[in-house]
């Protein structure tokens, strides 16, 4: 009785912002929906999204994603002119928006996208409340990582 291997499921992650953890102290995370055009959904399904240089602004009690890049597919529709870096609206609950507005305006936080992924067939963006790191903070984090790695090596041997 051999069990047949199930076909490997494709990853639900579209894009990650690995640089965010290095440059910022990430505090609280939120999940937001994205308002996308049809060609953008097709491009994201093909894995053509990038959020490394993106950021989120709050304007008129709405959240907007700026600086993200969704590269259009070559077989995109001919009657539209795709803009890869257009501003995209984020969908959040009202209480989440009010919490984010309070944190960014009063406590000096910024909103950074950390991951773009699929959830039940819909594109979702994980955003985090973040505070910028100073150079010495980055150096200290690097020292801590090196120490953890060295400690693991010592424990193995």
UniProtKB/TrEMBL annotation:
Gene3D superfamilies, per the entry: 2.40.280.10
Keywords per UniProt: Cytoplasm, RNA-binding
Sequence segments annotated as region (Disordered): 134-157
Entry superkingdom: Bacteria
Biased segments, Basic and acidic residues type: 134-149
Localization per record: Cytoplasm
InterPro entries in alphabetical order: SmpB (IPR023620), SsrA-bd_prot (IPR000037), SsrA-bd_prot_CS (IPR020081)
Pfam families documented for this protein: SmpB
Keyword Cytoplasm carried by entry: yes
Keyword Chaperone assigned: no
Family (UniProt): Belongs to the SmpB family.
Role of this protein: Required for rescue of stalled ribosomes mediated by trans-translation. Binds to transfer-messenger RNA (tmRNA), required for stable association of tmRNA with ribosomes. tmRNA and SmpB together mimic tRNA shape, replacing the anticodon stem-loop with SmpB. tmRNA is encoded by the ssrA gene; the 2 termini fold to resemble tRNA(Ala) and it encodes a 'tag peptide', a short internal open reading frame. During trans-translation Ala-aminoacylated tmRNA acts like a tRNA, entering the A-site of stalled ribosomes, displacing the stalled mRNA.
NCBIfam families xrefs: PRK05422.1, smpB
Name of the molecule in the record: SsrA-binding protein
Organism: Spectribacter hydrogenoxidans
Taxonomic lineage from the root: Bacteria, Pseudomonadati, Pseudomonadota, Gammaproteobacteria, Salinisphaerales
């Amino acid at each position: 009785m051999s069990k047949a291997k199930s076909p490997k499921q494709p990853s639900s992650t579209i894009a990650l912002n690995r640089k965010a953890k290095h440059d910022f102290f990430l505090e609280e995370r939120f999940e937001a929906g994205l308002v996308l055009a049809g060609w953008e959904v097709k491009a994201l399904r093909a894995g053509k999204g990038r959020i490394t240089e993106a950021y989120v602004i709050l304007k008129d009690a709405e959240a907007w994603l700026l600086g993200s890049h969704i590269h259009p597919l070559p077989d995109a529709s001919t009657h539209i002119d795709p803009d890869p870096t257009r501003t995209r609206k984020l969908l959040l609950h009202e209480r989440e928006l009010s919490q984010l507005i309070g944190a960014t305006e009063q406590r000096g936080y910024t909103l950074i996208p950390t991951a773009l992924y699929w959830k039940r067939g819909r594109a979702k963006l994980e955003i985090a409340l973040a505070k910028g790191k100073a150079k010495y903070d980055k150096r200290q984090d690097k020292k801590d990582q090196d120490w953890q790695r060295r400690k693991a090596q010592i424990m193995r041997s």
